[in-house]
Specification:
The protein is α+β, with helices and mostly antiparallel strands and 162 residues long. The chain is built from three helices and nine strands, in the order ββββββαβββαα. The radius of gyration is 15 Å and the shape is globular.
């Protein structure tokens, strides 16, 4: 059972717990950290979603990430999720966006890593593949119908495209 903190519309922790899989009451939100991963050489990381995942199974993702657990800050969740989903650590984490949906607050980070590119590790049940793309290829991917639309929307302002 995964427990999350509930947040109010101002992004402050509410005095309430949420449980993954249970409906989130109206007016409350759960926190998700997502990371756009860029290597020091300028390449961007794409992760392929497991075919068993709900929502866009098998698709390539522009970000890694997931829900913050109870007591975690967005940055702590970002560091944990990056390690769990990719096996990587980041040299720096820069917040690049905050997006509210019906019941989720997405905090987006640009993560710079100097890892060995072949050291990416996949997380069973979450990821099944990965690919590093040059910036031009990454932007072309993100502007294509192959990109998850919500990720494109959340990253578009930071990456300066419409």
């Amino acid at each position: 059972m995964e427990i999350w903190d509930a947040y109010d519309q101002d992004g402050r922790r509410a005095d309430r717990d949420l449980i993954r899989g249970e409906p989130i009451p109206q007016g409350l939100y759960h926190l998700v950290s997502e990371m756009l991963v860029r290597h020091v050489d300028g390449d961007y990381l794409l992760m392929q979603r497991d075919f068993q995942k709900e929502g866009y199974p098998g698709w390539m993702e522009a970000t890694a990430g997931g829900s913050a657990l109870k007591g975690e800050t967005a940055l702590e969740a970002a560091k944990r999720e990056l390690q769990e989903e990719t096996g990587l650590t980041g040299r720096s984490f820069q917040e690049i966006g905050k997006t509210y949906t019906e019941n989720t607050i997405f905090i987006s980070y640009l993560v710079i890593t100097d890892c060995d590119k072949a050291s990416v590790k996949l997380q069973e049940g979450e990821t099944i593949g990965y690919q590093w793309l040059k910036e031009e290829e990454f932007l072309r991917f993100l502007n294509s119908s192959e990109a998850i639309p919500s990720q494109r929307e959340r990253l578009s302002e930071f990456l300066n495209f419409d």
